[in-house]
Amino acid sequence: xxxILFTALASIVSGLVSAGVANIEDGWYFIKNPNSGLYLQVSxxxxxxxxxxxxxxxxxxxxxxxxVTNVGDGYVTLTSALGDFNIDVANGEDKxxxxxxxxDAYGGEAQQFVIMTTSSDNVYTIASRVSSGGKALDIENxxxxxxxxxxxxxxxxxxxQSWVFEKATTGCWAKELGYNCCTxxxxxxxxxxxxxxxxxxxxxxGIADTSNCCTGGYPCCKTTTKVEYTENSVKWxxxxxxxxxxxxxxxxxxxxxxxxxxxxPSGGDDKTYSFGYGLKNxxxxxxxxxxxxxxPKTGSFDFNWSGGKRTVRIxxxxxxxxxxxxxxxxxxxxMGGWAGGVQQEGYYGLKPLDTGLTTxxxxxxxxxxxxxxxxxxxxxxxxxxxxxxxxxxxDESRVFSAGFSYxxxxxxxxxxxxxxxxxxxxxxxxxxRNIWLPQHTGLPIAWxxxxxxxxxxxxxxxxxxxxxxxxxxxxxxxxxxxxxxxEANRGGPHKCYDYKTVDQRFPVRWxxxxxxxxxxxxxxxxxxxxxxxxxxxxxxxx
Length: 542
Hints:
alpha+beta; single chain; 7 helices
């Protein structure tokens, strides 16, 4: 049985994507039909519901710019840069000839699509969910001229149904037209088919970035809090002799913070950082603090989420105090494993080490497929974490995940886009690849990897590449990638190396030893694995 499962895992790891379904990352794209050279666009740049979809000459305008958002189970939505509008099959009809338009973004099945691979590299069809993937976006009558209509038709991967996703550049688009981009906010922008324009020093400039602009295109105040004028609930101040909008800071709670458990650190680094926490920071209580829990202290519970129902294994300290924030550790099972097995093994041997009773352990069940963790399970994690934080007293600054094999690949994926809710992860025999992976946010995270030199499934090369991706984001300019880690000698005891050139708030530990595809590596002559203690020390340093 193990041989069959490992063979299946090896096939999945090397294959990267499930058959037929493309892995297009979230982000902004221009979508081109290679047969005609024309781009998917909103007719007349009309920012309104039921505006028609057609194809036109590439102008890289907002009407041709689409945001891909993966929404689970292989489906995406396609949002227009003109506003809060999604590509939509008119009336949600599953029939040939149903027109394609933009409509108010609500994310229903009429606005969900699956991007399918074709026989040509990087060329795809865009199939509708309302047709269960049987019908695709189609240029009517195989049109190749400006303004040709787009509708839905039986998916035959034909030339007029083929699309290429071109990443939208984040640079200055106006330079291609001989202009610079604006360096200041523009209160009254002008729009044409190329994009939005402002004026600086008597010259036109393209508006590429409005992230630092507030109401009416005016800048947001950076330091001043003095209100000079209020209009329609908008508060205005003055900086550098210019009007700016004063954004109120989030209100702080006036309730007494919940006390910390005696084993949690105090007197540590409680500075405010642009991202993350200082070492030994004070606990951050969740909304569940002060509530009587509804979940069992030990055993399991059924968790209803947007994708159905899952069993979740849980262990809460016997002396649980609803006013004390607890560390939270997730355990993710491998292919062929189950959540109950993780629980029986003490959550990878970590629970027996929690002698101070400071930690809540949970292990969700996988999706029941051969590959137990997929794209939809990232939403499961989010919803389960929210449930736990609302029901239990969790230290939101100390949430961790550990996993082995496929569970480690899923945990590693979480480390790419869940840095704001996960303090750190431990991955046992991992890889930098998976059937589906989120786009990396670029943020750092505490990361520990365990590697067996003789692993033929998640090979050492895959594990080292997964580590290097983290090193790139955990150090200034990615310099830690050039730091050579000390690894164990073959046949000898394990070696754990802590990187010196990473940000100390986001440590990276790399543990190696001879051995195959197992999580509980042991030193020669020892019956007890060193992995749990190394992981526990890593998690509890914060």
